[in-house]
Design brief:
homodimer; 158 residues; alpha+beta; 3-stranded mixed sheet; two-stranded antiparallel ribbon; 46% helix; DNA-binding
Chain lengths: 158, 158
DNA sequence: ATGTATGCAAACCATTTGCAATGAC
DNA sequence: GTCATTGCAAATGGTTTGCATACAT
């Protein structure tokens, strides 16, 4: 398994970043990074907080926010803002850029690998250094579109 | 000018939607729709509230939220969630789908017309009815990347 | 020894909710 | 007349902030 290797690699990158920016290398920061890189898919502050506590490493929410900020800055974590709910995050390294298909009714987020955009297209953007992109496709999932039809039928009958 | 024509058209669509869903056609709702369709570009609840008040039509924030909800549901308005700040909205009708280029440092949002995705590609998504999509390209704008370089240089010297 | 990072509690702020008064039907 | 809608004020909840304590340097 190369999860170990990736974890080593991102830790080194994080150390390099903290050294350069004169940030202290605390055990909390390493634990948070390591924990994030053991999560597959999205997480939010609550789920991160809970799962870390479950594994016996309690960190305050302030520290989580503080550390995520650093991880975003050095591009080891990506932040998403689907709908109005809590921000979602995911690891950036060893995690291909993918599109998100979001249901505007139930808020369900599905991922899709079919990258619709090529990197060469992104390079065309002037006076801008692209660090990542998010493709959010909003619509109604099959479950909710069924519910919508039902509701409409009921209204028509009234 | 065809702004008038569009306003008439969306009003009719809104009426149709409200009739079908048995919602009451209040003066507030029409005023809000009309006002939104006089705004070019993005707006948020605060700017909408303020500009409506400036034009002599005061509506409560509750009503704004309430009405925007309806307008989103009938696809006359699109909602965006750039960063953690307040949601941004824009009219949907007579406003081509465009990409957003967002600076992760200063939060500035630039629009670009070069639609990177074709509709046929979107049709490929299974079990999902696409109503719109948002392409968010995150990165650092030229102004901020300059500021970053300065900051890094200062750190290196220390 | 110095001052950054942590953790707690309080503050913040966009959005939501509860409820009495209003007005569309 | 009925009940959805409005507008106000209070509540909510994710995130931020202030500050005393802990600990990396």
């Amino acid at each position: 398994m190369d999860g170990e290797k990736i974890r080593k690699q991102v830790k080194d990158e994080f150390i390099e970043y903290m050294t350069l920016h004169k940030h202290r290398k605390t055990s909390e920061r390493f634990a948070i990074l390591d924990h994030i890189y053991s999560i597959k898919g999205h997480f939010n502050m609550d789920s991160l907080y809970d799962s870390m506590k479950d594994e016996g490493f309690r960190v305050s929410r302030s520290t989580l926010y503080n550390t995520i900020e650093l991880l975003l800055d050095c591009n080891l974590v990506v932040k998403h803002q689907f709908g109005a709910n809590a921000s979602q995050y995911e690891r950036a390294y060893g995690n291909e850029n993918h599109d998100h298909i979001i249901c505007i009714d139930c808020g369900d987020v599905r991922e899709s690998r079919n990258n619709l955009i090529s990197d060469t297209q992104l390079k065309k953007i002037k006076k801008f250094t692209v660090s990542y992109y998010s493709m959010y496709i909003y619509g109604v999932c099959s479950k909710c579109s069924h519910a919508r039809r039902m509701k409409l039928n009921r209204m028509r009958k009234k």
